[in-house]
Every structure is written in C-alpha cells, then in structure tokens.
Amino acid sequence: MSAFVVGLDVGGTSMKGGAVTREGVVLHTERRPTPRADGPDAVVAAIQAFILDLSHIPPAGTELAGVGLCVPGLVTPDAALFSANIGWRDVPASAFAPEGVPVRLGHDVRTGGLAEAVIGAGRGVADFLFLPIGTGIAGACVLNGSPYAGATGWGGEIGHTPVYPDGEPCACGQRGCLETYASAASVARRYASRTGRTAPTEEIAIRAATGDDPAATEVWTDAVQALSLSLATYTLLLD
Asked: How far is Cα of residue 88 from the mean position of the Cα atoms in its chain?
C-alpha cells in the first residue's frame, strides 16, 4: 500500500493544505480561511476538519502516514505553546489530527525558511534571513543551511523586537513591536483607526505611493521605517 502525508500551513488569515506522496507528488492543494476571530478553539477545530478532509482525498489503496503542521508562535515538535495572533496556549500536537495519526509541529516561518534552503531561493546559500510578512511578522534565521530556533524556541521572532520603546501596545504584552507597525494586519488596523474606513493592505500601499491619501502615507511610512530599523539591527548582529 502506498503512503501519503498531509501538510498544513496555518496563518493568521488563511490555512494552506495539501496531500503529498512519499515521492513528492502533490495530489491535492487547498486554501481555507483561518477563523481567528472566533477564538483559538475554533481554529483548532478548523484545523482538525481540514486535516480530516485532506486525508480522504487520495485514492483508495493509499494510507495516511502522518501530518506535518506549521503554526505561528512558540512551537515544539509536540505542542503549540503560544501564539499572540491566534491566542492558543499549550495545545498538544495530537489535538490537531485524527486519533492515532502521527503529527509533527513546526514553526511556520522556520519551516518556510527550511523549504527555501532545500528547494527554493536559498539553495546553495549557507546563511540567510527568510522574512515573510503576513498577518504577523516572524523571521527564520538560516545558519549553515538549518533554521536556528535558539535555546528556548524564540529564535528569529523579529516581529516582537521593539522598534519604538513607547509605541503602541502589542498582543505579546510589549510596546512598539515591529509587528504592531509593519504586519499586514497592523497596517490595515492603523489605517482604519485614522480614517474610520477599512481597506486591504495592498490598497493602502497603492494610496501611499500615489500620495493622495495622507493617512495611508503616514501608516505606510511608519511600517517601512519600523521594518528598516529591525532589518538594520538584524544584519549587524548576524553579518
């Protein structure tokens, strides 16, 4: 009997999943919204349902060998310990999948950094920083081809480095974090607080570029400046 695995990447806005054979053949991919506004228990339930649905897609005669699950926040292979964006604490890996199915958890961005090192833009590069910007911000510091997690698992969490010491409060409990100013969710939130209007982040960026919307220009300038400060510090520490 041939085997396949289910892979799921959980973000603050959407979840991307797929079923893949041992040989790397992609059998199916799918995207679903992350019900973050409904609370952490709802997100766990949505992940369970997504994994169950993906496990039934491959044809008869195939067997689910395991689940690889990438989630944001502080993560060990066996538990999702904390996520400021989703709000969960100490969720065991077994809670996400059908009973008896092996599950391995990974930090979403460090796993993405590993993928870039193995099959993406980081191939052949020993050291690099992988920095996706989405609902939140985190970085994967890849050293000698492997993501560095640090002694306690917070390695690469550049989104929670303060850039403005007396700045706006962050969900992590600090003030002035990079994520509070430069993540896609924060750009949209800060724009709405100034204008009373909601707009997607890409539209805010366009309005800032044209110079026709002072609020968009202010919010986007703050985001770029915060990101520049963090990246300058990161570069000087590592290079």
From this structure: 14
